[in-house]
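Q: What residues go here?
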């Protein structure tokens, strides 16, 4: 139902059946495309800012640090690897910047690689007994030789929601954002709650507005460092927002104000600016502007 945002399609068959075949993975390595990132999660790029193309053979023997990502439609394997020290890389580029000019599938594949490498870098030791993990199944399982525990890549679910009252859209500002930037509300799902309950809780905690009902629309992987943004549209009571300290400001925007801001782009000199085009937040604002706040929803908040 939503489109236009980045990182939603890596264009790869994840090929789970191959993850347990060490010989097959080693055989794929020489001709594989290796997605290189640095320790800060920036992607290796050429002098023109385009993704750097390196094969496994160019990088040497199959590294135990490489993570098998899957197979593209042309049959080429893709791996993720933190760039070895001393590797000659023309440029390092932030993925949020790269996503504005790279193809959606390439940006999505690098986002997938970034999320996996971040998990790997922070999962070196067993959380149960402290022993160093041994990575198996193409890098997707960290096995502890001490206590036998298996550790898997984790994703942190978060909700992001366009709240309308029938005529207006509720937006907030966080401290540190560029002047004029506003966005929809978001927050992490806590243990023991559904995403719909998280929508109601987060909106009320941040603004004091009570959500009456909400509806799921779409999701965006957000590898900064490892979230999955679950996009919702909701109807809220038309109350005056009050802040709890997390937001710098929050207020209702009329349809006219939202339309003008969408047309304005990144120019904040004459009014507020909406979320960037690469984020699901922008897609939610555009959806609300085109479709309006739902009059009814299957997910009511009690």
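A:
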């Amino acid at each position: 139902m939503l489109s236009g945002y980045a990182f939603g399609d890596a264009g790869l068959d994840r090929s789970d059946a191959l993850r347990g075949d060490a010989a097959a993975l080693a055989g794929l390595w020489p001709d594989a495309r290796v997605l290189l990132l640095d320790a800060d999660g920036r992607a290796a790029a050429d002098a023109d800012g385009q993704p750097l193309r390196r094969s496994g053979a160019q990088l040497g023997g199959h590294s135990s640090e490489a993570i098998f990502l899957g197979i593209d439609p042309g049959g080429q394997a893709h791996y993720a690897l933190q760039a070895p020290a001393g590797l000659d890389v023309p440029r390092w580029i932030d993925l949020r910047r790269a996503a504005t000019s790279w193809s959606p599938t390439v940006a999505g594949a690098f986002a997938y690689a970034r999320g996996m490498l971040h998990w790997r870098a922070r999962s070196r030791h067993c959380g149960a007994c402290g022993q160093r993990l041994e990575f198996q199944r193409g890098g997707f399982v960290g096995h502890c030789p001490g206590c036998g525990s298996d550790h898997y890549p984790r994703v942190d679910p978060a909700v992001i929601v366009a709240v309308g009252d029938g005529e207006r859209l509720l937006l907030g500002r966080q401290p540190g954002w560029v002047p004029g930037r506003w966005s929809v509300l978001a927050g992490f799902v806590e243990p023991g709650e559904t995403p719909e309950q998280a929508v109601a809780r987060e909106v009320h905690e941040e603004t004091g507005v009570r959500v009456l009902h909400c509806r799921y629309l779409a999701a965006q992987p957000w590898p900064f460092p490892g979230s999955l943004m679950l996009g919702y549209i909701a109807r809220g009571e038309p109350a005056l927002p009050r802040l709890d300290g997390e937001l710098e400001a929050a207020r209702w925007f009329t349809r006219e104000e939202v339309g003008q801001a969408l047309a304005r782009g990144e120019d904040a000199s004459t009014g507020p600016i909406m979320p960037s085009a690469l984020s699901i937040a922008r897609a939610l604002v555009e959806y609300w502007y085109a479709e309006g706040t739902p009059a009814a929803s299957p997910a009511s908040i009690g």
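A: Context that may help when evaluating the design: The CA atoms of residues 22 and 138 lie 8 Å apart. The mean pLDDT is 93.
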